[in-house]
Design a protein that fits this description.
single chain; mainly beta; 14-stranded antiparallel β-barrel; 2 helices; 60% strand
Length: 494
Amino acid sequence: MKTMNKTLIAAAMTSTFTLVAAPSYAAGFQLNSQSATGIGRAFAGDAIIADNASVLSRNPAAMALFDQKAVSVGASYVDLDVQINNVEYAGGNLGSIDDAASNTVIPNFYYIQPLSDKWAFGIAAFTNFGTGTDSSSLLSTQAPVNPIPGGAMPLDLIGETEVITMNLNASVSYRINDQFAIGAGLDIVHGSGKLTRAQNAISADADGIGFGGILGATYEVNDNHRFGMSYRFSPNVTATGDIGANLGINGELSYSHSVVGSGWVPNSYTVNLNATDLALGIAADFEELEVPLPDVFQFAGFHQLTDRFALHYTAQWTQWSVFDQVTARNGKISGDFAGTLNANCQGDSAAGEATCLGINAIFDQILPISGERQLFSADLAEVALKEYNWKDSWMLSIGGTYDVTDKLALRAGYMYDQGVVGEIASLSIPDSDRNWYTAGMGYKLSRNASVDLGIAFVRGKEVQLEEDSLFAGTVSATTNSNAVYYSMQYNHRF
């Protein structure tokens, strides 16, 4: 069982502005949809095969293998099957969702221009990251409930999320000699996202731009055997827009926060907050969000074993450990409060009891707070809205290409895509290890024109998880996410 561990910040803002908290089509929220050619062979060898211009999405150095101008344009349709089952919390069972994610179309474009026998230039537009989900239907059979822990629904975990990035790339390559070539490129990454939580009381609609880059190299043993590698430097995307929350709480409120220590003398204690006759209004606004994106390294090989059959493979590492948190900046929280507030600290160990003596001494001086309507406000320069602490992941794929005739080529592949979620899991990120089973074909329409088709069946694992809701305590569920990719691409050399 995986357990969600949250950082408490800015009262009801704790876990709600997570623009990337939703199921995606690969590990984390990474997309593998850059070309129909790649989908057909599970992206095995895609950083070196260079059979069309889509190689630019994986390795700019591979442009050195082209002696003609080349263009590729295509799109992938992703049919998602994301299930969230048996959602339970202290107040009951919210049921299940069979269609928590929306299907989508993902386009791509590539152009390569050889400048000489040494230099080449290319431009591309494609997507590396994206995600989308809607769990709002879990509330469709429930009456609205004030967000009071113990009896309320987990409104902060349920809602709609949509995020997409578009990568605009410009690259150059240089051929050093007959065996070696290098390449480099600039990425302009545009990210946009929408989010609603707590029956639209919490919402975000923001977009922004980040700048990254890619370095690549190729080594050709001979015409039948070659290797390629690349390293993509992904940026932190800073998004601006409407990012805010307006929440009202009436009645009674109880909240506990535990600190668990370690070592020979663990300092463990629990702080309890209790409010009665409560009337609380909270408004929070931020100017920008910063979302870190991971770097990606890949190594690929291609081997033409016979006149008709080729074997290829890829090992890809993604630095998801940099995705430690989503940070909000330049914010302000304000509101009003009426009621009676009490707090106490309870030690769960000898060291914890000693710590609580000091904490309770402070509480005794300032609490209880009781009275009529009081206004409050505070500036929030930088706040970690949610912590993730994901782990780095590997994607391993192997594939084959068989030339049936001079015009028709068949492809197949298998990919193992490692999940990124460690001990911090989330209802809205049903991430798991995934297996890809793919097939495709390419057909030459003429000497310079061809079309590619690809299909991929992506199968994830069932995940049981728990997540803490600020409003309803611990929530448990079982999630599973699968997908089918359908992709088509047109290529032309001239």
